[in-house]
Amino acid sequence: MIEFDRVTKRYADGSPAVADVSFTVPSHKTVVLVGSSGSGKTTLLRMVNRMVDPTSGRVLIDDVDVTTMDPVRLRRSIGYVLQSGGLLPHRTVVENIAIVPRLNGATRPDARERALTMLDTVGLDRDLASRFPAQLSGGQQQRVGVARALASDPNILLMDEPFGAVDPIVRRSLQHELRELQRTLGKTILFVTHDIDEALALADEIIIVAAHGVIAQRGTPTEILTRPANAFVAEFVGVDRPERRLRLADAAGVEVVTDASGRPIGTLER
Ligand SMILES: Nc1ncnc2c1ncn2[C@@H]1O[C@H](COP(=O)(O)OP(=O)(O)OP(=O)(O)O)[C@@H](O)[C@H]1O
């Protein structure tokens, strides 16, 4: 479990990026921080692996304050996926994925074998192993980023807008694959996005973040959609948007789901 206990972060120039924030990420669950730009999501995420240290308050992993841990070892024990992929451009795919296992002491052949297995895990062909990142599509690069983060079998995965830079169709399939992967791997995932639909698709629990990391609401996707705590959340989630107000229509004996404007979006299965 990851626990944020009254955490504040003040950068050098003044107003707090994050002010007195407390929440937990239960083990084996996916918690998604969603909020507008500059609300402090990345700051919160980076406090888990000590890329940022809190000005006050504590971040605990399984009851241990992360500031008592060696930052380098801590970072090697936590998977981290960034929007840009963060792959080393002059290393091949397999080398990129093998980095952390190597740093953790695996022999070169073992680390390579592990990296190839990770390619299978994230649904990439082993033929891509010797390519360089620039020779991959955006979606493939993000899969490699996920493979690299998982390569040392960390308990915790931090994901900062990992699918933000790919087109909507690839993004959907990456989200779907992450959910499938999570079903079997059961990692503790803290995921940051500004896209509420991505949060609804991925989260066991969503935390809607307002300015300065203030938590506007925490709940399951269903709770957030059906019982927004206040006007800010309702507006952010877009509870009144036509695609959130689904209706049923009958089309020659088949129940068709339409949005509020009557546009068909699917059929109902019972
Ligand atoms: N290294 C830094 N030095 C000074 N201010 C910073 C630094 N990093 C972030 N900030 C400020 O802290 C606030 C929160 O930034 P943060 O990146 O955590 O927000 P975010 O919610 O992740 O935003 P985005 O969705 O745009 O990535 C912003 O006002 C930002 O300008």
Ordered list of secondary-structure elements with their pairings:
Layout (H helix, E strand, L loop, with lengths): L1 E9 L5 E10 L4 E6 L5 H8 L7 E6 L2 E2 L5 H6 L1 E5 L10 H11 L4 H14 L16 H13 L5 E5 L7 H18 L2 E6 L2 H7 L2 E5 L5 E5 L1 H6 L4 H7 L9 E5 L2 E5 L5 E4 L3
Parallel strand pairs: 3-8, 3-9, 6-7, 7-8
Antiparallel strand pairs: 1-2, 1-4, 4-5, 9-10, 11-12, 12-13
Helix pairs in contact: 3-4, 3-5, 4-5
The structure holds adenosine-5'-triphosphate (ATP).
Structure, described:
It is an enzyme of class 7 (translocase). This is ABC-type quaternary amine transporter. GO terms for molecular function: ABC-type quaternary ammonium compound transporting activity; ATP binding; ATP hydrolysis activity. Belongs to the ABC transporter superfamily. Its EC number is 7.6.2.9. The structure is a single chain. The protein is α/β, with parallel strands linked by helices and 270 residues long. The protein has two domains: 239 residues, Rossmann fold (3-Layer(aba) Sandwich), CATH 3.40.50; 30 residues, no CATH class. Helix content is 33%, strand content 27%. The strands form three sheets. Strands 6-7-8-3-9-10 form a six-stranded mixed β-sheet, sandwiched between helices. The chain has a four-stranded antiparallel β-sheet with strand order 2-1-4-5, with helices on one face. The protein has a three-stranded antiparallel β-sheet with strand order 11-12-13, with no helix packed on it. Helix 3 packs across helix 4, helix 3 runs parallel beside helix 5 and helix 4 packs across helix 5. The chain is globular. The model has no long low-confidence stretch (mean pLDDT 93). Bound molecules: adenosine-5'-triphosphate. Adenosine-5'-triphosphate (ATP) binds next to helix 1.
